[in-house]
Structure formats: C-alpha cells, structure tokens
Design a protein that fits this description.
Blueprint lengths: L2 E3 L13 H11 L1 E7 L6 H9 L4 E5 L11 H13 L4 E8 L7 H17 L4 E6 L2 H10 L5 E3 L6 H9 L2 E5 L9 H9 L5 E3 L21 H12 L3 H16 L2
Parallel strand pairs: 1-2, 2-3, 3-4, 4-5, 5-6, 6-7, 7-8
C-alpha cells in the first residue's frame, strides 16, 4: 500500500530531535509522500530545505490565518517570488479562522483573497484552514478562479462539504475519526464519497485516540486509514488506494 499524509507540519521544532527516525518509520509503513504546509514566511526557507533533501516531503507555501498578526503585506510579494523560484505542490496553509477571539477578520479576508490570487497566477491548488467561516470561505473561493484544493480537518456540514466538492475541492480527515464520540465526523466520513476524501494527521497536533495526550506524527496516519476503512466498511487496501489517488491527482504528485 502507498499512503499519503496530506497535511503534516514536519518542519516544526517539535520534530527536530527525531525527524529522520520518523521518516524511516514512514517509509517502512508505505507512506510515500507527506505534504508539508507552511504557516508564516519566516519558515519558508527552512521548509523548502527539508523537502529538497527528502523527496518524500512535498512543500506548500502560505500564510496561516491563525498568525495573521505576524503577516505583512510584503509577504504576499515574497510568496509570489518564492513560487517563481521554487517548485511547490500548493499554496497553503491559508484560509479564515473566525474561532479566534478578537481576531482581525478584515485582515484575514484581505490576506486570503491575495493568496487566492497568487495561487491562481501560478496555477496551484490551495490548502485551506477554516474554522467558523466555511460560508465566507466558499463565497470567496467561488468569486475567485481557484478551482482545486483541500479543506483540511473538515468539520462543516454535509451541505458545505458538497459545495466544496462542487468547486473541485477535496476534504481532509484525520485522527478525529478515531474518537468514539466524534459522531459528526463519523457521519461526514461515512456519507461523503471516497473520491472526495484525503487522509491527514496535522502532526504535531490532533493526535488519534490511541495516542491522545502525545505528540502526533505522520506515521500515525495508519490510525486514520483504519478508522476510515471501518466507517466506510471497505478494505483498508481500497481506502489507501483511493485516498492516495485523490492526493496524487490534487497535488500533481
């Protein structure tokens, strides 16, 4: 089986002590690729360097909405330049996060729209982070010419999921599926078509039930794989093959 973790922050300091050991474990388990989305411009050079020296790592560059206070207008021009100079699989992690208290929503929207324009210019998919803002994100995507990407850690409604799919997006599911009480996520994962689903860990965050309280890591994608197979009542091999195909098509791997 080939498996792809479509959302993992393996460049973060949480992995500095054992990054190579984790990658060795991933290879042993058949995890062929790991998408590594950026969160702020300061990390782009280091992230690209990690990916350059490990062909299993696929970089995505973007400005995460949670860190909106750190982002500068000049970062958009820098992003455009980086995308001219480096091969990446997506623009991300970008989006809107209205869950945060006292956040600057207008600035978030401004930076999201600018990054959608950059993605359009470079013909790249986007990796979305969305909390309490799915309708706003869907409206802005529809107004843009971006027609492919992933909505990571999706937890919206079935209706919102269908709107994303209609716009050419796929939806990420991870460790949350492994929790017995995650009924909403179980319903989404069971109901949505398999060709619209991506597997992800969001490591080092969002650990699976069997690893709760511990650092998450990409080799734990197997927990999400098994959970989705159980929910879909399909063989693990079928889930692995289809979700890998989904990721390869979306990120042009």
């Amino acid at each position: 089986m080939n498996i792809i973790d479509t959302h993992c922050h393996l460049d973060l300091p949480a992995f500095d002590k054992d990054r190579e050991q984790i990658l060795t474990s991933c290879r042993t388990l058949g995890i062929s690729n790991i998408i590594v989305p950026a969160i702020e411009s300061e990390s782009w050079h280091k992230l690209l360097n990690y990916c350059y020296y490990n062909t299993a790592l696929e970089p995505a560059l973007g400005l995460h909405p949670v860190f909106i206070k750190k982002h500068k207008r000049s970062d958009i021009d820098l992003l455009d330049q980086y995308l001219c100079d480096h091969k990446v699989c997506a623009v991300g992690e970008i989006g809107l996060d209205f869950y945060i208290e006292n956040t600057d929503k207008d600035k978030q929207i401004d930076f999201f729209e600018m990054q959608l324009s950059v993605a359009e210019k470079h013909n790249l998919p986007v990796i979305l982070h969305v909390r309490k803002a799915h309708d706003e994100v869907l409206t802005l995507i529809k107004a843009s010419n971006v027609r492919t990407g992933s909505c990571h850690a999706f937890n919206g409604s079935i209706e919102q999921a269908k709107r994303y799919i209609d716009l050419g997006f796929k939806l990420g599911f991870g460790g949350t599926m492994t929790y017995p009480g995650a009924r909403k996520i179980h319903h989404l994962a069971t109901t949505l078509p398999l060709d619209a689903i991506l597997l992800e860990t969001d490591a080092p965050d969002m650990s699976a039930y069997g690893h709760r309280g511990k650092r998450n890591q990409p080799d734990f994608i197997i927990d999400a794989l098994n959970a989705l197979a159980t929910l879909k009542k399909l063989p693990v091999e079928t889930i692995a093959a289809q979700t890998t195909q989904n990721a390869c098509e979306l990120f042009r791997l």
